[in-house]
Amino acid sequence: MASKLHQVQAKLLQASQFVTKHGSAYHKQLLEQNKQYIVDPPTAEKCNELAKQLFYTRLASIPGRTESFWKELDYVKNMWKHRHELKVEDAGIAALFGLECFAWFCAGEIIGRGFTFTGYYP
């Protein structure tokens, strides 16, 4: 156990030395590559303004998203009405989608219980 701890400490020391040596250059390169996204002057007031713009822009996009949702729902209803014309590929895709939704639900439940599989808290 002590040898593993020593190995981990050595790796961490090596990683921190690498970051110390190359971190500044990486930071400068990253800022240079993405300078079109940087707002000048970078002040707290400008950050607050951008945050408000993002919030209200997303708020304004809700009607369009709602309209898209109802169109998708109408499409599903239409497919259900004409299910006798449904191809095997479409049914397979729908089954995989349902399975994926169920898997995400199960993963969320496990995460919500603190990564326990039984739900038992000792």
UniProtKB/TrEMBL annotation:
Pfam families: ATP-synt_G. InterPro entries: ATP_synth_F0_gsu_mt. One of its GO terms (molecular function) is proton transmembrane transporter activity. GO terms for cellular component: mitochondrial membrane; proton-transporting ATP synthase complex. It is found in: Mitochondrion membrane. Keywords: ATP synthesis, CF(0), Hydrogen ion transport, Ion transport, Membrane, Mitochondrion, Transport. It comes from the Eukaryota. The keyword Metal-binding does not apply. One of its GO terms (biological process) is proton motive force-driven ATP synthesis. Belongs to the ATPase g subunit family. This is Hydrogen-transporting ATP synthase, rotational mechanism. It comes from Dorcoceras hygrometricum. The lineage of its organism: Eukaryota, Viridiplantae, Streptophyta, Embryophyta, Tracheophyta.
